[in-house]
């Protein structure tokens, strides 16, 4: 019996020893973890899918954030609308369109003319421009108004009356501009069809005519549709950047939507969650604090990352033209609005990181990731190794007890 227990003990010890050796060879990479380590992110940066063994992997690059790069990102001014539609300096030549309502006033010098009497030397006629672009005037017939300015329409009527009326004169005024409207809908006080004046009007002015936005500018988005072009920008950006407050044109459609800005925080923080900004601006330190801060026991202070699709102007400024085009050749792709994937890295062990973090702005839909410290995986690995050792010790103790009992 004693020899059997000894053989059993020997077999158990050998098998567990072999298991521990295999686990040790596998290393800490075999230990389950919550997201990639800092070294994993750094090693994948700038690599194509084939270079890292994943054919369809997203190609991105890492930017180590310092004072200069933080200022570059924070001082960037979005030019989405002005770049796509042009700023415009005015309404240009305003012409009469189909559906417009006009008032034509005709004067005559004589007291007994086509349009004058002894009591009045003028006659006013209200017109609506018909779908064919014309409207009828007594003793003149159908006159084409569509496509003419008010002065051109006046001159056309005057020329037609010179041989029929006594020293005629004409005034043409616009009373309603159905052809010059902008549709404003969504999160505004009064969704409506807004008629445009003869002077230039901007997006903010038209939204104000529709009752103004119903939410705060930092969580309100404005989408402009013009023909086949569409552009969306935060109302806050329109207010802060005059170049984005572009002039509207007849037929434009403006959609105002409330969409609170959020960021997602993952990794070694108090809670993995999506968080609303709840403020006009938010910097990195404030965002981490809103999420409850990093875990002192597990976070890698050198591994705070912000994953973002960034504006191409910023990416080229940060990486340089040569590096940017090299990444494009490796397969870096833009998203549907032309932004490119970038990962910003912060080293919170450096004293100036508390200053840099205040100047680096968090943007809508950012993902903030706090990597775990490598020691966390080592601790898990040792714990994983210690468990079978405990089992062996228990088995050996049982064998010893049986041996003692048998003796």
From TrEMBL:
One of its GO terms (molecular function) is porin activity. It is found in: Cell outer membrane. It is a multi-pass membrane protein. Residues 93-173 form the Polysaccharide export protein N-terminal domain. Residues 1-26 form the signal peptide. PROSITE patterns: PROKAR_LIPOPROTEIN. It comes from the Bacteria. Residues 182-256, 263-369 form the SLBB domain. GO terms for cellular component: cell outer membrane; pore complex. GO terms for biological process: monoatomic ion transport. Belongs to the BexD/CtrA/VexA family. This is Polysaccharide export protein. It comes from Rhizobium meliloti (Ensifer meliloti).
């Amino acid at each position: 019996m004693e020899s059997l227990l000894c053989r059993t003990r020997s077999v158990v010890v050998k098998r567990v020893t072999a298991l521990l050796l295999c686990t040790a060879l596998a290393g800490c990479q075999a230990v389950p973890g919550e997201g990639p380590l800092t070294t994993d992110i750094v090693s994948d940066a700038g690599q194509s899918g084939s270079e890292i063994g994943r054919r369809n992997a997203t190609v991105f690059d890492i930017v180590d954030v310092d004072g200069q790069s933080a200022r570059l990102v924070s001082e960037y001014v979005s030019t989405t609308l002005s770049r796509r539609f042009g700023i415009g300096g005015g309404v240009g030549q305003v012409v009469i369109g189909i559906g417009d309502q006009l008032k034509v006033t005709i004067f005559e010098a004589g007291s007994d003319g086509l349009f004058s009497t002894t009591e009045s030397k003028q006659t006013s006629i209200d017109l609506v421009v018909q779908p064919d672009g014309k409207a009828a005037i007594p003793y003149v017939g159908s006159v084409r108004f569509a496509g003419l300015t008010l002065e051109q329409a006046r001159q056309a009527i005057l020329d037609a009356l010179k041989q029929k009326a006594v020293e005629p004169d004409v005034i043409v005024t616009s009373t309603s501009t159905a052809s010059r409207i902008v549709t404003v809908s969504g999160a505004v006080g009064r969704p409506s069809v807004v008629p445009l004046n003869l002077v230039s009007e901007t997006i903010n002015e038209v939204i104000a005519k529709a009752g103004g936005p119903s939410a705060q500018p930092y969580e309100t988005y404005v989408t402009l549709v013009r023909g086949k072009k569409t552009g969306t920008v935060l109302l806050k950006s329109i207010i802060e950047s005059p170049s984005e407050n572009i002039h509207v044109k007849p037929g434009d459609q403006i959609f105002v939507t409330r969409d609170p800005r959020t960021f997602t925080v993952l990794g070694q923080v108090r809670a993995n969650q999506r968080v609303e900004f709840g403020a006009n601006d938010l910097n990195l330190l404030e965002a981490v604090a809103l999420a409850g801060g990093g875990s002192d026991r597990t976070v890698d202070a050198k591994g705070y990352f912000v994953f973002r699709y960034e504006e191409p102007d910023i990416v080229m400024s940060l990486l340089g033209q040569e590096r940017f085009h090299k990444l494009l050749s490796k397969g870096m792709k833009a998203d549907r609005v032309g932004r490119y994937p970038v990962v910003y890295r912060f080293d919170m062990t450096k004293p100036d990181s508390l200053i840099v973090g205040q100047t680096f702005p968090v943007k809508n839909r950012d993902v903030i990731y706090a990597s775990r410290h490598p020691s966390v995986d080592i601790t898990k690995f040792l714990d994983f190794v210690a468990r079978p050792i405990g089992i062996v010790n228990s088995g050996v103790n049982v064998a010893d007890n049986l041996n003692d009992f048998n003796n």
